[in-house]
């Protein structure tokens, strides 16, 4: 059961679904789910943005345990070392408990180090400890070492349980080598080992992440033929992959099949569907799915609400974004850093800079630590609103909070300088970025070239452009259009036409903007015949709007 060749998803399903089929797929899936839930749904009973918080009072919220108390790792390590000196030596399960706790806290290297010290002291490990070490090694990507520990388990005549084997399979998949994971599975089965639902969920997830959607579907069919019981964790990665491959009809078909098999969607499945609908701009259908989710007594997660916030922010409906954000606390959903970033970004996009800054300053009061994305969003908004004086304070704060500026940070600042014609400062900042070992993106280069052209430094722009050509950068249509526009502005029409030819020779096709730049410049130079030739060419390429 090993899939050697990368399957062609197109051979399984049609590439796209027409709108009527797409909508009927949504309706069929929702209809079946509603039938399973045995209720009649009236969408008008729900709020325009979210269900009324009072309608969520029936959620069965379970808090199985409180968050683990904060533990000082140094204290744990000291306790472990103290155990070495005890006489008699404590039972192995006490060592096991400490190693397990450290692994749960994700201190993988420390766990492995203590394990090695334990072995040097002659303390014999048990199967549980060796399984813990396999887990730590897999998390650190040390797969060769993890298999060495498996070999040790077999040498000691322990029988590895399914948890240890699942850990190895998960580790192999995490290292993007699902084919090896499948081979390992086949060999283990041939030697009499048996796997469970977790194993096959991991393999399906690995196949989907590797773009092997058809292979994942085949594996699901084998599972449902009697290998083991299928579950929602097997369906969700396949459904997600189908949506990402623009195969919405097939994705909804799989949701329908899942429901008909009495496997009810969880929050992850609902989130996948809501995200796909928002991505298509189908917010009404997305809200319908949310309504069904609520009626099914599946509590919307922070991911659910972030998806909706992000969509409303994209279409600049900040009233809806704020409504959802405020609803989070009412339904006992804790906002994440992503929630705050969406809110701050939306406020800045709406030119509500002071509100964005206030929200940023409130974050520490709510035990929320701004990340680099938060700072970059703020910097971009401040630069675009012309509040450069606030930018440097924010940069200083980034350094103080150990959130080092990246290429996005520098590009944002360079763009602000270019926009305000502070070209020397822009270039100086560019040099600092290079000195810090941060490689500029194509967007950074485009901003510099555009800034130099608009600031009357065409020669500098040409030098940068030639450097990029020589170095083999894949220049995009924006870069060529910017340079052609700069040449045209200086009246260098022949040079612009030469660059146009090079552009097409290099496999970069001009877009409508490039044509408009050239046509306008030719008309201004009374090159009417040439301009009309470009107009006809533009029409023939279906670029005329």
Tell me what the structure shows:
By secondary structure, the chain is an all-alpha fold. The protein has 28 helices and no strands. The longest helix is centred in the N-terminal third of the chain and has 19 residues, at 19-37. PPR repeats lie at residues 161-195, 196-230, 231-265, 266-300, 336-370, 371-405, 406-440, 441-475, 476-510, 511-545.
List the helices and strands and how they pair.
Layout lengths: L18 H19 L35 H13 L6 H13 L3 H13 L6 H13 L3 H13 L6 H13 L3 H13 L6 H13 L3 H15 L4 H13 L3 H13 L6 H13 L3 H13 L6 H13 L3 H13 L6 H13 L3 H10 L9 H13 L3 H13 L6 H13 L3 H13 L6 H13 L3 H13 L6 H13 L3 H13 L6 H13 L3 H13 L5
Short description:
This protein has 545 residues and is mainly α. It has helices at 19-37, 73-85, 92-104, 108-120, 127-139, 143-155, 162-174, 178-190, 197-209, 213-227, 232-244, 248-260, 267-279, 283-295, 302-314, 318-330, 337-349, 353-362, 372-384, 388-400, 407-419, 423-435, 442-454, 458-470, 477-489, 493-505, 512-524, 528-540.
């Amino acid at each position: 059961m090993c899939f050697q060749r990368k399957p062609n998803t197109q051979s399984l399903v049609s590439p796209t679904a027409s709108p009527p089929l797409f909508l009927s797929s949504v309706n069929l899936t929702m209809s079946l789910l509603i039938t399973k839930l045995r209720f009649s749904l009236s969408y008008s009973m729900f709020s325009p943005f979210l269900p009324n918080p009072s309608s969520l009072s029936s959620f069965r919220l379970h808090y199985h345990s409180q968050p683990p108390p904060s533990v000082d790792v140094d204290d744990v390590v000291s306790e472990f070392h103290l155990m070495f000196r005890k006489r008699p030596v404590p039972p192995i399960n006490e060592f096991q408990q400490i190693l397990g706790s450290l692994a749960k806290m994700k201190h993988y290297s420390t766990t492995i180090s203590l394990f090695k010290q334990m072995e040097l002291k002659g303390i014999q490990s048990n199967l549980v400890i060796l399984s813990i070490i396999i887990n730590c090694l897999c998390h650190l990507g040390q797969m060769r070492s993890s298999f060495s520990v498996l070999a040790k388990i077999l040498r000691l005549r322990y029988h590895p349980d399914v948890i240890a084997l699942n850990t190895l399979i998960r580790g192999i998949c995490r290292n993007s080598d699902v084919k090896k994971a499948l081979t390992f599975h086949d060999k283990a089965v041939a030697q009499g080992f048996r796997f469970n639902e977790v194993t096959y969920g991991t393999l399906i997830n690995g196949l989907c992440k590797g773009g092997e959607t058809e292979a994942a579907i085949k594996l699901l069919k084998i599972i449902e033929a009697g290998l083991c019981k299928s579950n929602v964790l097997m369906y969700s990665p396949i459904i997600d992959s189908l949506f990402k491959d623009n195969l919405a009809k097939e994705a909804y078909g799989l949701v329908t099949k899942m429901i008909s098999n009495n496997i009810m969607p969880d929050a992850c499945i609902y989130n996948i569907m809501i995200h796909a609908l928002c991505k298509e701009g189908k917010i009404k259908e997305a809200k319908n799915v949310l309504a069904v989710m609520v009626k099914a007594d599946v509590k919307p997660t922070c991911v659910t609400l972030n998806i909706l916030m992000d969509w409303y922010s994209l279409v600049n409906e900040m009233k809806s974004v704020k409504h959802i954000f405020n609803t989070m606390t009412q339904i006992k959903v804790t906002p994440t850093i992503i929630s705050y970033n969406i809110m701050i970004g939306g406020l800045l996009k709406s030119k509500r800079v002071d509100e964005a800054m206030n929200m940023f300053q409130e974050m520490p009061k709510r035990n929320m630590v701004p990340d680099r994305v938060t700072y970059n969003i703020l910097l971009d908004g401040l630069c675009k609103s012309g509040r450069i004086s606030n930018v440097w304070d924010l940069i200083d704060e980034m350094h103080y909070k150990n959130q080092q500026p990246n290429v996005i940070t520098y590009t944002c600042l360079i763009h602000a300088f270019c926009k305000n014609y502070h070209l020397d400062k822009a270039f100086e900042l560019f040099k600092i970025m290079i000195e810090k070992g941060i490689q500029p993106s194509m967007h950074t280069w485009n901003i510099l070239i555009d800034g130099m052209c608009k600031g009357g430094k065409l020669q500098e722009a040409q030098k940068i452009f030639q450097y990029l050509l020589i170095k083999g950068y894949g220049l995009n249509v924006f870069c060529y259009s910017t340079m052609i526009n700069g040449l045209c502005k200086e009246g260098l029409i022949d040079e612009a036409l030469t660059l146009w030819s090079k552009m097409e020779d290099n496999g970069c096709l001009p877009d409508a903007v490039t044509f408009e730049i050239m046509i306008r410049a030719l008309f201004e130079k009374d090159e009417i015949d040439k301009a009309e030739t470009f107009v006809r060419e533009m029409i023939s390429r279906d670029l005329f709007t």
